[in-house]
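Table S4 entry, Lipoprotein.
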Amino acid sequence: MRILSFVFVIFVFFTGCSNTWSGIKADSSNAAEWTKEKINDGATYVKEKTE
């Protein structure tokens, strides 16, 4: 019974880590896209003001 409980706890731990890693990757991707958009908006604004 102990071994079964241990295996279950390990399984839950690895599943949680997997979900966390997927969330980190998604958040990083979203942050990168947001940054690209803001930099592009800023560059467009500067270009319009200097022309």
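Helices lie at 2-50.
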